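Human: Note token order:
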Amino acid sequence: ADVLAREPDSEELAGLPETLSISGRDFSCRYRFEPGQETDGITLQVPASMASEVSAEEAQWLVPGRLREKVTLLLKSLPKAHRKSLMPIADTSEIICRVMPRERGPLITSLSRFIHRRFGIDIPASEWMPEAIPDHLRMRFSILGPDGREIRSGREEVLQQAPAESQKQPAEVARLRRRWRRNTRRGFAGW
């Protein structure tokens, strides 16, 4: 059984939703606290047939309850010249997460745009260090087969691998497709 040090409050729980809307669709989320393990962090469960529709860029935004930690680490990873203009980092991160609108594009692009508008600081994309973000703050994807079992999992790169698996057709579908093509070549369009 899991043991909690304290009962989470309703605001904390609201920041960790059971489902997350990405690319206009809702997907189930799983949360694991397993530092150092591949499953640590947030896992979005995606049917293989929909994996090609999921935007890895939109998933960079995570869930509201983890965004502030990610933004804080991204700000801390900036070169000193930019970082010192955004001090104190904790306050800047709080403002960003409270005021910046959630967009569908990459988080870093939105951060640069917002920081420029709000603070007058221009941060080129090359100055950000997304590799400084630990895995638990990068969305993990669990690609599910038709039976609901996980067929592959991983971070952003797993989305590009999934379409090949989802394009495999059951033998019955392939047989019907061949039959359709054969009949339409003969000029017979009905079944």
Observations:
- The longest helix spans residues 171-185.
- The two ends are 57 Å apart (CA to CA).
